[in-house]
Amino acid sequence: EPEVTQTPSHQVTQMGQEVILRCVPISNHLYFYWYRQILGQKVEFLVSFYNNEISEKSEIFDDQFSVERPDGSNFTLKIRSTKLEDSAMYFCASGETGLIYEQYFGPGTRLTVT
Amino acid sequence: DAKTTQPPSMDCAEGRAANLPCNHSTISGNEYVYWYRQIHSQGPQYIIHGLKNNETNEMASLIITEDRKSSTLILPHATLRDTAVYYCIVRVFFGNAGNMLTFGGGTRLMVKP
Lengths: 114, 113
Prior knowledge:
heterodimer, A: 0% helix, B: mainly beta, 5-stranded mixed beta sheet, 4-stranded antiparallel beta sheet, 0% helix
C-alpha cells in the first residue's frame, strides 16, 4: 500500500539555523499539507498546497516558513531561522483530491531546536 | 466550524466494543462529522465520516443522532492496537481547494487486556 514518507525522522538543529523537512507524497496525489504537533499539544495545521501554490495557511505559517515542490515528487517545508518554539513533530499529508478524509499522513519528522 | 466536545480519556477491555462520544451541538446542516485517530505520535489516520446517516466501514461504525448534535464512534471489537487518541472533527466540505483539518484534544482511548 502506498505511503507518505518523511525524512529525516529526527532533526536536531541550533536556534537560528535553517532546516528543510522533506516529504514524498503518494505518487498520484495532488494536494499536500503540513501540520505540526508540539509535544503534548494538539495537531495544528500549517499549510496546504495545490497546483504549485499555497491554497490555505494558518497564522503559524509566517514568513519564516516556506513550502516547495521542487521536482514533482518531493514536498518540502523550510524554516528559515529556527526558534526554540519550532521544536515539534512535523507531519506531511497528501491527498488525491481535496477531500478531508483523503488526507494521508506520513510518520512525521521530530524537529528539536537547541 | 462547529465546536466539538469529547471526553479526555476512556478505557475499554480488549475484545469489547469501544464507544467514543462526541458532542457537536452547534453543527450546521452542511457540516460533516469526521473521525481520525493518532496512535502514539504517529501521523493521524482517517477512520470514518458521515453527514446524517449512520455509516460503517471495515474499521468502525459512526452513529449520528437524528438532530445531529452528537455522534458516537464504535470500534466493535477493540484490540490493544486501537489504543490511540481519537479526534472528532466537524467541517464543511468546500470542494477541491484543499481542506485543513482542525484537531481538538480528542479522547485518549486505552484498550486494556
